[in-house]
Amino acid sequence: MENFENYFNTNKETWNKKVAIHAQSEMYDIVSFKSGKSSLMPYELKALGDFKGKSLLHLQCHFGQDTLSWQRMGAQCVGVDLSDEGIKLAKKLNNELQLDAEFVCCNVLDTSEYVKDKFDIVFTSYGTIGWLPDLKPWAKMISERLKTGGIFYIVEFHPILWMFDYIDGKPKLKYHYSQDEVIYEEYRGTYANQSSKMVSKEYGWNHGLSEVVNALIEAGLQIDYLNEYDESPYDVFPDLIKTESGMYKMKDQLFPMIFEIKAIKKSL
């Protein structure tokens, strides 16, 4: 069996380095965020509708902007992330903005060991499941943390995008759609600051849509919907074109860029 701990530790080191760079980046725009701008995108706001007064667990929250955006809009939030530096900055922002969200530093797969409450909503978004070797324990943890009738919502980059290697700036078809073997990449910069001199060392895994859906169903969740969209809210892939709506698309769009799943925890 592969030693996933080594992979997770390498990823944690990389994400710890990313935090300071991302906090200064135009993409995360922390100044506007502090002055009241929400970091949430239209898909997640539409999907979760009336969330005011509800408890929300945010998985893989980075340094907490989305968690704090939900909190600021009336949810009671707990954010979880692997990165010590991410959680440290999230707590600092929470205090600075005089909010009362909670933040926990742990591997997302170990969430149930650190967070015992059950939630109305479990939420995760954009660039999360690719860090996990197996989605079954992830889905089991989500089910454990949801109240009966609670909602799980994920909006994520489409698995087709991860079939390409982007290291040289030109997408090159390289990986299987649902590849079991770990993928290692080493490159300069980050998606939020490509000119940064930091070296990103990352281990990841590709998961096809059927794997995501079946893991959730097996864990006792009922799929409400699965949607795919030909656009990304972030300019993080080569040669994207900004649309009138503020989203980003490829010049010759042949496949979706994101998907969303909403699921409900069934009664026993």
Automatic annotation (TrEMBL):
InterPro entries: Methyltransf_11, SAM-dependent_MTases_sf. Residues 58-154 form the Methyltransferase type domain. Keywords: Methyltransferase, Transferase. Gene3D superfamilies: Vaccinia Virus protein VP39. GO terms for biological process: methylation. Coiled coil: none annotated. This is Methyltransferase domain-containing protein. The keyword Nucleus does not apply. GO terms for molecular function: methyltransferase activity. Pfam families: Methyltransf_11 (PF08241). It comes from the Bacteria. SUPFAM superfamilies: S-adenosyl-L-methionine-dependent methyltransferases (SSF53335).
